[in-house]
Amino acid sequence: MTSYEREKRASQVSTKGLGTMAQRGSADMSAPRPTLGERPQLRALPRGPGGSPGMPSPSPTSARLPSLDILKFADEDFKAEKYVHNVLTQSTEEGVRGFHQSLIDARDAAAVDLQRNVYKNYNEFVLISKEISKLESDMLTLRSLLSDLKDINANLQTEETTAEKVTVELVAADEDESATQKAAPALSGLAKQSEEQTRRQQMEALYETVEGLQKVLPEWRNRYLVRDGSHARFAEVNPANYKTVQNVHFYLLSDTLLVTTKKKNIISGKSRMVLDKCWSLADVAVVDMKDSIEVSNAFKVMRHPDMFIYRSESLEEKRSFLGAFKRFTDELMLQKRQAVESAKARQKLAIPAADPEPFSPTRSDTGDRDTEKRSGRPTKDDLTANDIKWLMELPDELDVLIAHRDFDHAVSLIEQARHTLSKANAETPRVSVIRSSVEERTNRLAQLVSLDLANPVASKTQVQMNIDKLLRLGMGDQARDFFLTARTAIIRHRIRLIRFDGDVAVYISDLAEIVFRLIRSTCDWYGGSFRDTTMASGFMKWVNQELQNFGTIFRRQVFDSKQNFSVIADCLQHTLHHCKQLRDLGLDITFVLDDAFHDDIVKSIKDHSKQCENAIVAAVEADKFAAIKPDSQFLVGREDEFADITANVSQSVYELYSVFMEFGADVSVLMSISLYSKIVNCLTGFFATYIRKLVEVFGGDWIYRQRSTILVDATFVVDDLLPKVAGQLAHRFERPIPELEDMREKLNHSITAMQTKFITQTREKLLKDKYNFPLVDYSNNGGILDTAKPSEHIMRLIDELNTLQGALDPTLPRKSILTSIVDGIFTFMNDPSCWQNARGPRRLGFQGVQQLILDIHFFLRICEPLVSEETNSNANIVCEKGLRTFFSQNKELKAALKTGDWYDKRVDDVMALISSEFPHLISIT
């Protein structure tokens, strides 16, 4: 800002503030600048030459400093340029700087003074506002009373006419009306009858729809529905805090304004329309309200002494209702006015007319008026001779200006011509010819300006200047259409220039950059050119059209060409990235793109999830279920990628983890609440597919270590991987994921079923291949040595259990699994089929029964950590059954059986010799 501009701005200080300053005196230039909230202390300046306040008198050696006369700023004829020229003509640079500082101090002092006055008068302003609001209500009441009084006076004047003349008039009117009706076509009568029937049906439907209307507003034949408000919802707001009270609907009748609201029946759950307010149109006034921070799209309904505020969901709904109400009330006022004039006319017909004045040839004005009335067109327009001459020469001048493309001057002349023509109080033939000629040149000029507006290489300044010309010509809609059409052509041209090298993601990135950058620049240019807010809807329609065109190209290049989901995700990410530049202008269109691509994205996610599930199935089928160790060659160079996998799992788990990582990276850009259900279903499907496939392959011919790995895989996926995915998804959507929690519970049941199946299969295999108790021969009737050892069958069973214990992964519940297997073995040994066969009871000899007891004692000792109370009880029952069977088959014993101490000693001796052969069983705690 130059010093001249600062001085000019300082000269525009409020008169009130300057007057106060003048009373206090001029500010001292040497005083410090006032701080915020501090009232500046002004000191009177020394009087300069002539007695006016000014700068201190210069010393003989210094130059004269300019003086600051604050009183001159309050003068109505004050001219800043002249004042500055007079004061600073012979001033030095130091004097100019001092004068400038004086102006700044004066400005600050005026600002502080004005701020103090505002604070001081705030309460009075509030009181005056309340008084104005009350006065507005009183004026409406007065208007209603005056209208009623006017109607009463008209009726009284009509009744004063004589009954005879009124009767004659009514009869004549009836005869005329009857003749007119007879002469009218039958089709007009049918149309009127159909209209009346339609109105009657509408009112019947309204009485059935609105509950409580029949009690408040009785039926009347001449009442009909003007505007149905069932589809337009408004909200009643509290005038004190502008909070929503309830949602309402407005029904405009021919004489009444109805306000209804919907209420829901608690029992039936159905909604019904209930009458809330019922006002006569003569008693209410509807006043529009300006938008504010607290409320927008609002209007007031005033009925003395009450005042209600309502707002609509959109500006179009409010304008539609206010326009319908105004049009109908205006028609009612016009009908009332016509009725009053008709009554006055009838009254004049009833009164004898006075004798007309005899015709006088000297009354030329009367003759002129009669001639004007007979011709049907006015003959006088009250334009001066100079105006007529200038207007007649204007078309030729406009033609010259248009030919020389001097559009600015031409627009100024057209504006001046319109202003001059507006002064004409009558549309004479001369005015009509001039107006037509000017409008013809206006249209020609508008066409040329529109061509310049459509120039694709025009700069922002040129575009705004051309739009301004069209706005001055009164062609705002045409300017908007030409401008937006030109911008559309530019976007289409730029799109055609994009090169496609086969990379769809790069092409979509370039496409989004061009489209959204041009939309951004268009929004900037449009806002700077069209200040009228009513034109914002046209711009939004244009933006929507451009987004539809972008969506068509995007869909053709991405979705219709069956691109991989990773490519689709990249394209969507590029689109959203370039779309963010519109948010700086307050134009967020992300939701529009979400709606446009929602169905295509859902279908793509579905196809991609199907491919992922097929990959998961293939990974499980190809897996050999060998645990991958941390130092495995498979993990070389990929340690960071699989850092979250800490268990000894097989390769299929790593491939499942990769599927989750790729899927998450692809859909991360699509993480919106509208796609929540689809994404969660895909993730739960991945987990379910993997566990279901593990259950299928678990029944195959696997060794213990492979089965152990399968169980570890399933446990890790359900107990570790699934919670991590659920936590990340909950953080992204900012809500818990109950679907994954339910899936985890179902999958835990599947893992439990796998463990049960593993226990059952292992027990059956051990009883069949290692210790087939029904087929083990315990019928030897010889003696048992003091050096006897457990049988070969029980040793093979123990060795197999030791192998199983070593094969199971430490993360699995090994002790629980082996305990269940041991419980199952002894439960099976108590089965009657083990003690009875087709040939009779099982044979047990003297040596055999003692060997059986020794085998059971040794098994219980070496597998002691795996022996439960149930197993111990079953083992005692087996021994007891063996002894009972032996005694029943050998009633006369020649030698006594070994005692419990002997069995304990033999078990201790054997344990000392061979316990080291079963390290895995011994290490169980």
Automatic annotation (TrEMBL):
The entry's keywords: Coiled coil, Exocytosis, Protein transport, Transport
Stretches for region Disordered: 1-65, 345-382
Domain Exocyst component Exo84 C-terminal residue range list: 389-589
Any single Gene Ontology cellular-component annotation: exocyst
Composition bias type Basic and acidic residues, residue spans: 1-10, 365-382
InterPro entries, A to Z: Cullin_repeat-like_dom_sf (IPR016159), Exo84 (IPR033961), Exo84_C (IPR032403), Exo84_C_1 (IPR042561), Exo84_C_2 (IPR042560), PH-like_dom_sf (IPR011993)
Subcellular localization(s) per the UniProt record: Cytoplasmic vesicle, Secretory vesicle
One GO process term, biological-process aspect: exocytosis
Coiled coil: 142-169
Pfam families in the record: Exo84_C, PH_EXO84, VPS51_Exo84_N
Membership in a protein family: Belongs to the EXO84 family.
The protein, known as: Exocyst complex component EXO84
Organism: Spizellomyces punctatus (strain DAOM BR117)
